[in-house]
Design goal:
Two copies of one chain form a homodimer.
Chain A lengths: L7 H14 L5 E3 L6 E3 L6 E10 L11 H18 L3 E12 L4 H17 L3 E10 L4 E10 L14 E4 L5 H9 L10 H12 L5 H10 L2 E6 L4 H12 L2 E5 L7 H10 L3 H7 L6 E5 L4 H7 L9 E7 L3 E5 L5 E2 L19
Parallel strand pairs in A: 4-5, 9-12
Antiparallel strand pairs in A: 1-2, 3-6, 4-6, 7-10, 7-11, 8-10, 9-11, 12-13
């Protein structure tokens, strides 16, 4: 059966079977009716986010397997939920793939998405399927909840520090390798696997975000999807403040530096402009840093690094090791440059 | 400014400006942060649906303007919400369009979507934007609520009648005209405008569905997106029953018959297999029909027509005017045949 061509009826049966296994709570009616019927937690705010992933914009089939596509489409949405300090609960997955796609590929896609969803207690409750005239495309919507006020990007205050929850530039290093036809000579295979996984299978910082939200003291938070330069610019603009970042303080790990050396890339540019690291970007009072750093769950490389400060003026300034202002690589815009590393909100 | 190329930043600004105007209630944080933050109505069930519309699968740019695409992407989701007897509240719109798309086209797309959303009190609260390597594509997610138990497709009972809320085959007649390079000779321009609008700008039966849900007596309901044959088959299968339809009772209006004559089409086949009429398909006890017919709001051609009966066995049987069982045109499957009239759940 697994080599059969995907049909819409087959896809719905498959999604339904997988959804029934996916667990989660608060699902009165799941896949199989016109809509999902869900039971929200009384008193909790409802959190909603949606993200589109397109072949040859956000990924290439040459290096992204269906399971990777499913994982990442789920991950980028879960990361948005994490950025509010909320708990993800329900997912709707819309998938279009080309005529001739095999059921086993579609099953692998759902398996990738559900492997991550189940880890975080998220139920697959709905979706849509279609043929696609050109390549794979996925839209995932995730609904979450939070009993506490969500953390926003619009509430940073001058005097706060700017911090991130883990290393930057890893996903860009991974993309640089994935986009090459052959691995560069001399690069450790472990490093190659490590950074390409960072690109293909990002891990949303849900546990860390939940802890930070409960710990208190975080004044603003968002996730790093489009790179620090773009995303910190957004956080500053939404908060009506400016920010100042010391490039030397950016957490760039040894693997990312090794890849930069091997391919002639710029690790700092990847850290500021590469995007898709899905670390949390947050602000807090300087006095809170040690408490938050000490308490942050330290899984999967999470570590709170202060990279700069919130200042009154508009805009983000970048300082080199001598304190001189420099220009940095920023993210890209989808509609003006086609790229395999897409801009995400 | 309107002739400028669409950029991601421009799209986000545009969506935000339009969202701020779009009204709706229960929106604590809308477009501009990582997620929307919404305040559900205490005690209400949350209803969620998502639908993908792709160029050259669900529409062609040759005959669908950006405003039509926006309208229809919203309409098909609102129709899903209607089918549960629920009230739509919030929408997330993900849009990808080709490089070179002008801001005025994107603005027209949102205007089309919001014209319908605003009519039903639905707020635009989030979304995503991307470039597309191949054509326009849209994913809309709509969240609704209902304080009462939602109407399902899985609860029809043998002995019930099968009824629809309006004429069938109109959207297929419209598609048949849109797909032609030139209008057929002798067709009244009013009829042409009427049926093409049925395809391009379907009107979700929200008011009618809300009335039916409150009136009581409806045992099962869904919306007709993929055609009566496919959708009644689904309703029957989900309910563990069969159905029997008398073809003579299908409500096919004069405009649809006129188009069928003009283009050599089969109006009955359009009614059973054309899809995209977005009328409600429902079941109820025979004794309830007159009360429901008399009370149903009679706007935009809505009229309750009994077309058949729910029976014990599995499957749907179709009877001609002499009571003989006949085969009918059914809907299509996306992944096995590429068509401009897409299958919708």
């Amino acid at each position: 059966m697994s080599a059969e061509r995907a049909t819409e009826a087959g896809l719905v049966r498959l999604a339904r079977r997988l959804a029934a296994r996916s667990g989660g709570t608060g699902v009165r009616v799941g896949i199989g009716d016109d809509c999902a019927v869900l039971d929200p937690t009384p008193g909790a705010a409802l959190i909603a986010t949606t993200d589109l992933l397109l072949e040859d914009v956000h990924f290439r089939r040459r290096w992204a397997e269906p399971a990777d596509i499913g994982w990442k489409a789920m991950a980028v949405n879960l990361s948005d939920i994490a950025s509010m300090g909320a708990e993800p609960r329900w997912a709707l997955v819309a998938l279009a793939c080309p005529a001739g796609t095999r059921m086993e590929e579609v099953e692998a896609f759902y398996a990738g998405a559900l492997a991550l969803a189940e880890r975080h207690g998220v139920a697959l409750v709905g979706g849509d399927t279609s043929s696609s005239p050109h390549g794979w495309l996925v839209n995932v919507t995730v609904l979450g909840e939070t009993p506490a006020p969500p953390l926003l990007r619009s509430t940073a205050r001058p005097g706060d520090v700017v911090a991130v929850t883990g290393p930057l530039g890893r996903a860009a290093a991974g993309l640089a390798l994935l986009e090459r036809r052959a691995a560069p000579r001399g690069l450790n295979p472990g490093i190659l696997a490590d950074v390409t996984a960072a690109h293909l299978r990002p891990r949303p910082r849900l546990e860390e975000a939940g802890w930070l939200a409960r710990a208190g003291g975080v004044t603003a938070m968002m996730d790093l999807s489009d790179g620090l330069a773009t995303d910190l610019g957004r956080l500053a603009a939404e908060s009506g403040v400016g920010a100042c970042v010391e490039l030397e303080r950016l957490p760039v790990d040894a693997a990312t530096r090794a890849v930069a050396r091997a391919v002639g890339g710029d690790a700092t540019a990847w850290a500021t402009g590469g995007g898709e690291d899905y670390e949390l970007l947050l602000t807090c009072a300087p006095a809170e840093v040690e408490r938050l750093r000490a308490g942050l769950p330290a899984k999967a490389g999470a570590r709170l690094s202060v990279v700069g400060a919130v200042v009154p003026g508009p805009g983000v300034r970048w300082l080199d090791s001598r304190g001189r202002e420099v220009a940095v690589a920023a993210g890209f815009e989808h509609l003006s440059s086609r790229t395999a590393a897409g801009a995400r909100r």
